[in-house]
Design a protein that fits this description.
Chain A is 45% helix and 16% strand. Chain A contains 13 helices and 12 strands. In chain A, the strands form 3 sheets. The first copy, chain A, has a 6-stranded parallel sheet with strand order 2-1-3-4-5-11, with helices on both faces. A 4-stranded parallel sheet of chain A has the order 7-6-8-9, sandwiched between helices. At the A-B interface, α4, α5, β2, α6 and α7 of A face α4, α5, β2, α6 and α7 of B. The structure holds a DNA duplex. Chains A, B: InterPro entries: HTH_LacI, LacI/GalR-like_sensor, Lambda_DNA-bd_dom_sf, Peripla_BP_I.
Chain lengths: 332, 332
Amino acid sequence: MELKQQATVTLAEVAEAAGVGESTVSRVLRNHGSFSGKTRERVMAAVERLGYVPNRIAGTLASTGSRLVAFVIPSLSNIVFPDVLRGASAVLEENRYQSVFSVTDYDPGREEALAAAMLAWRPAAVMLAGYEHTDGTAKMLRASGCRVVELLDLDGDALDIAVGFSNRAAGRESAAFLLKRAYRRIGYVGHDLQRDTRAGKRFSSFCETLEAAGAPLIAREILAGPSSVENGRLGLERLLARATDLDAVYFSNDDMALGGYFHCLAQGIAIPSQLAIFGYNGLDIGRAIPQPLSTIRTPRVATGEIAAQLIVANAPPQVVDLGFELIEGATA
Amino acid sequence: MELKQQATVTLAEVAEAAGVGESTVSRVLRNHGSFSGKTRERVMAAVERLGYVPNRIAGTLASTGSRLVAFVIPSLSNIVFPDVLRGASAVLEENRYQSVFSVTDYDPGREEALAAAMLAWRPAAVMLAGYEHTDGTAKMLRASGCRVVELLDLDGDALDIAVGFSNRAAGRESAAFLLKRAYRRIGYVGHDLQRDTRAGKRFSSFCETLEAAGAPLIAREILAGPSSVENGRLGLERLLARATDLDAVYFSNDDMALGGYFHCLAQGIAIPSQLAIFGYNGLDIGRAIPQPLSTIRTPRVATGEIAAQLIVANAPPQVVDLGFELIEGATA
DNA sequence: CCGCAAATTGGCAGCGCTGCCAAAAAAATC
DNA sequence: GATTTTTTTGGCAGCGCTGCCAATTTGCGG
């Protein structure tokens, strides 16, 4: 167990120590090509003795493809993205891929810069959220020759692979559900829709559905900043101050909806008789509150898993609709 | 705006197109060394025209250090880790570093394998959770010569840099708080402590403090699987079925505590008069429920930020205690 | 024991870039 | 205008590994 120096051990040194050629060491370590059992042992012994750690930088440069998948995601605060990462990284790690990520903070310009930085690592695939990219980003991705996966949205044209579900459909079904339940005076509490374009799509098709049914949205409250429980609470408070006669409120997602739910609890507003609440995402916590939250459960982890599987399998360009599930719950 | 082929543009081609040498292109692109204004323009024009994206694989191999930081984290479900990643990645991206991550699922063996895989990318630093690593992991990290940051725990010996707070102190202060509030019949609901050693440390010092005060823990309920709101609810239900005379329950974290809180809400158990609830983490949602959760707020994002800053600044080995804040709340 | 096919093995040229060094050009000095 | 100094530039040897190809060894049938 001698201590190693700073100087890193190279494959050549292992070859030397094992008394074999470099390519033999390479073959043994990658278990690729043919070599005898005793050679294998000698090499492994030398690897162990020297504490050799292969240099994948060099390996990737010398070979063609990298086993690197780049994620360019809007946020880590919004639970959606850690969930997607979780699903994807489980599959990727199983297949000995590595995940690199960066966070755009919902800024298309940053997305472009970060996508460029990721591309510099010549990843096997780039995964990003949705379809809204700058022209520069799209051009760059197309030119890169690496696989591109757009996640969590299907309302647009895919560059290569898309995995997710339709946010427009989610908005539409949410509205249809509330209408079916005979709510007619409906409001909305949301976070920044300029940035979160998927929430924006849900909202606009939600509104269209209401209008088509002759019960247009009565009032809305849009809060600056990211979605959060506190913003949901605050948003509902403000909305109700302006529009006292609402019978249902649609929230941009479950975080916000929970905030609204707690506001009602604290204010003694009866749910759903006095006010109905509907969310989006299907967070676990929504099922654990006294009245399960009415919401739409989205396949976030599965989105990551499927996306990763398609990349690992080098599947052809395609659009995979994983759908979503409307959870009736008890708040609407 | 001609379309590029699959074949990637190399620096040599840019040099050719710009009518300059390779090293000149390299200098211009990295803005390092000297070159004239017109050379710069010629190079940039060629870069633009050819759609050149530098190959950082090659660049890193040729130069010495990489601007890559590897995260080896136990989980992405536990909000702690996305929060740490968020803090760290913001700082790292600002400094043009890239983040690679992998998820160990709280398995030390997997941690070792994944750490080895990360080391193969010769990162500038490896960040991992806590101090509990296999001998193999520790040896490998020490031998690697790259910076190592251990996060979210200070109860042990750091390999290099450690950033976080003491989980033992957190457990101790939680117990002290409950004792000060005159609770004496205290129970515990937690998730798998074998795996989450930081939760284990909190729990053991919590118990020690209770014992020292002559009010040892009455009952505990440990659930298999990860922490979750639902498990917290279930855990409290089970615990109360066995121990009916508790006056307070300490939860392994806020997720679990919220589950317990909702259980009480649903069962009509008055909080805190009939039963007090104390959590750990200081999630936002804990502040938005009708009675703010009594808990300990941990500096998760700051832990990531500070860790990243130390790496960017190439700071000497050190232990940074960021402390935590006890939130009295209204549930205990 | 020989000949031929199959299994092993080593040598070495890159992969695309950076870093060093010397050459060339430009600027400054006498 | 000659010389020195400074700035700018290009050439090229690697970084550590993989992939190709040729050389060597081994296995087998006759």
